[in-house]
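Forwarding the complex inputs:
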Amino acid sequence: MSTDNRTLGTLSNSEIARQLSTSGLRLQMGPFVFCIVSSMPDICSAIGTVYRNYPLAPSDRMADFHVQVDFPSLARRWYHPQVVFRIDDSIPYKPYPAQAAVAMMEWGLNWTVFSNAHQYLLIHAASLEKQGKSVILAGEPGSGKSTLCAAMAFQGAEKHKSREAVPWRLMTDEITIVDKSSGKILPLARPICLKNAAIDIIEQRFGNLVVGPRCYNTAKGTVAHISPSDESIRLMNQPAIPRMILFPKYDASATETQWCERSKAETMILLGRQSFNYSTLGTAAFEAMGKIIENSLTYEIRYSNLDEILLQIDAMFDDMCASDRLHENMAEAVAQKAAVVDTVTEDVENVTEDVGNVTEDVGNDNQSNEPLFACRSGLDSPQMAERDDLCLMETVQ
Amino acid sequence: MVTQNQATSRTSSRNAVRNSVLLRDWNTPENVCSYCSADWELFLSQARACRLAGQWAYKLAQLENFDKIPEPAQQALDAAWTAAEHHRRTLLWQIHQVSDVLQPLTCPKILLKGAAYIAMDLEFAQGRLVSDMDMLVPKAFIVDAERKMLDAGWVSGKYEPYDQRYYRQWMHEIPPLFNPRRCTTLDMHHNILPETSRRSITVEPIIAAALPLRDKYTDGSSVSTGGSVSTGSSVSTGGSVSKKGKSAQKNNGVIASTDLINPSRWCVFQDVDMVIHAAVHLFQEGEISGSVRDIIDLDGLIRYHSQQTPDFWDRLFDRARQFKLDRPLYYAVYFSHEILDTPIADTGMKALRSIRPNVLTRQIMDRLVLSVLTPPQFRPSRWTVSFGRLVLYARSHYGRMPLNLLIPHLWHKTFPKDPLPVIDNDGQAMN
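Prediction (whole assembly, two chains):
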C-alpha cells in the first residue's frame, strides 16, 4: 500500500523512464488501471508532463490492461521511425510516424477501453459534473464538442479561483461510462484531445494549461492532449447523476445561440448511435440508456459564439440544479408529513387495539359472542374519542 | 532416437502451453481463486488474446466462491461474458434469417463448427466467441443456395476475379457471403476439405449421417442427457449462468439456442464426424492461429461425445480410416490430450498409437504446434512463434493444393494482378 495516494509527479523523470522501460508504469484512470510499457523518449517525457497529477495504482490493485507503445522494430527506431500500439495479441492501429507517438498512445488507450469494457455502457460523448450532477455533450465528430468541453472544463477552474461560480469538473472528453445498475456516470478523467485550430483557441483562452506535445499530420490533423484540472483528477472515483444531454453543433453562420429541445425518443436514437457498445449490451443498454434519458433534459444547441453558449449552459444547468433542490426539499417535506401521518395512523391503530382489548375484556365479562361489534361501538364512545384527540395533539407537536 | 536434450526441450515447450496461466486450471477452475493479481493480469490478457475470456467467464461463474475473485477481474469477466452473449445472439439471429432464405431448398442444411456447438447449447461452448457462421449444403444445391442468398440481399464478399476463381474452382466453399446491413459473414461450404486437397474426400456419407438439430434436443434425451458432462443440454444454460447475483451471472435472461432458431430446419454432423471435422479444420485446413481455442473445442467435443455413446472411440477411428483422415485425427486427439488431459479410453489409446506418424515427424510437429499454441505474454508473440505459424500455414496450404497450383496461388496473393482467365459458375471463361 506504499504507493497509495501517490501521484506520478512524486517520481523522478529517471524513475518514470525506468518503470516505463521495464515492468511498466501503472496509472489509474477512472475505474481502470493501465500498465504502460514504452522505451520511447517522447512517450516518457509526455507522460511525465500530461499525467503528472495522475495517481499511481495501489500496489495491491491489479492492472486491467497491459499496453505497449513502442517502435515496431529495432530498424524502425532509426530508419523512418515509427510507433505502434500493442495490447494482448492485437495491434489496433497501423504503425504511425514516431512523431505522433503520443497521439497513438492516447488513441490506443481509448480503443482499449471501448473495445473491452463491456461491463459498462460506453457512449462516445464528453461529460462534465457540477453539484453531483452531470451534463453529457454528444455529437458527430467535428461538431465542436471537444472544444466546448475543454472550454467548460477550464473556464470553471479559472472562475473558481476568483470565486465567481462553482466550477465544472471534467469527467471525460471522449468516452462516457455509464454504470448499468446505478445509471450514474463514472469519470474516466483522461487528458482532453484537441484538434487543429481548437488547440490554439483553448491555449490562448486559458493560461497555464498542461499541454502535451503536438502531433502533426495524423488522421485527424494536428492533435494535442491537455491534462484535466487537478480537481478533476483528484475526484476521478466520484460518479455523478446524468441530468442533461446536449448535442452542440458549431455553426459559423448562427447569429445567436439557438436551443432546440429534442424529444426523449429522438435522443434515445441519437445517443444510441453514438454508443460504442449499444448492441453488444443489448437489453441492458436499452434499459440503462432509457434510464439516463428519462432523467435528463435534452437539447440540441447551434452556436457560433463560445462565450455565449458557455454562459447559457451554465445558467441552464444552475437553474435546473436550483429547481432540483426545490423539488428535493419539497419531497423531503412531503416525506416528513407522510412520516407524521404514519405515526398518527400507527397511534390510531394502537388505540384501536387497546379499545379492542378493553372491549374484549368487557365482552369476556359479559360472556358476549360479538366482540367485533363491541369493538366498533367502543370507538364511538366519547371517552375514547377524547383520548384519540390527545394522542394526535402530542404527535403533531 | 530421442536425445536427452530433445526430450527436455519438447517437455518444456509442452509445459509452456499446459502450465500457461490460461490453461493450467481449465479442468480445475476452483484454483483460480488463489491467483495473485499478477496471475490475474496475465490470465485476462491471454484469455482476451486467445478469445477464451467468455468461456472462462462461464466456467468461473459456476464457482461457489466466485466472490473471492478480485473485483476488477470479476468486472473483466462480466465484460467478456457480455461480448460473448452478443456473439451468440447475433449468430442465432443470423441462423434464423438464413433458414428462412434457404427454406425452399429440399437438401439438408448443416451447421458447422462454432455455429453448431452454440446451436446445440454444448456446455463447453458457453461464452464462445464466433466470428462467422459456417454451414454446409450438398454441392448440387450450392449454386441455388448462393443465388437465394444473393437475392435476399447478401453480397459476395470477394470481388477480385482471381479470388472468385480460387474459391469456385479449387475450394470447398463459395466466396464468403456478406450481409451489408448486419456486417456479418456466412461461409457456405459443400465439402469439409478443398477439392484440390491431397486428402480430398467424398463428403456424401458424412452428409447422409448428419442428424437433425431438433432430435438432439427437444426429445432426443437419449442423445443429450446420457453422460456426466451432459449438463450442456439446453435446459441447463439458463440456470447455470444466473446462479449467483453478481457479474457474469447477472444474465439470467439466457434463452436456450434452440428456442431462438427453428431447429427442425437444421442438421449437425453426427458425433464422430463433428470431431473429425474439427480435427481437419485445425490440422489440415486451418491456419493454426488463435488455435488454443480450437484445442478447447476438440477437448470439449471429445469429452462430450465420448460420454454419450460407449463405442465412440472405435467408431471415431474407423470413420477417420474410412476417409483417410487419420493423420489430422491423430494430431487432434494427441494434442488435446497432451495439453488439456482429454480422457481417452483404452481402446482409443491403442488405436491412436497405431496411427501415429514416425518419430521425426512427431518431433517437428510437437515443436511447431506447441510453440504456436503458447499463449502470448501481454504482447503479440515473438518471431519464433510467427515462424512456426508460417511453417504450419505453408504445411496446411501444401495439404490444400498441389504445388503446381500452390506456387502460382501464392504468387498471385503476393503480386495481385490477374492475367488468368476468370471462370464463372458454369465453367465458362468470362471477359
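Chain A has 13 helices and 16 strands.
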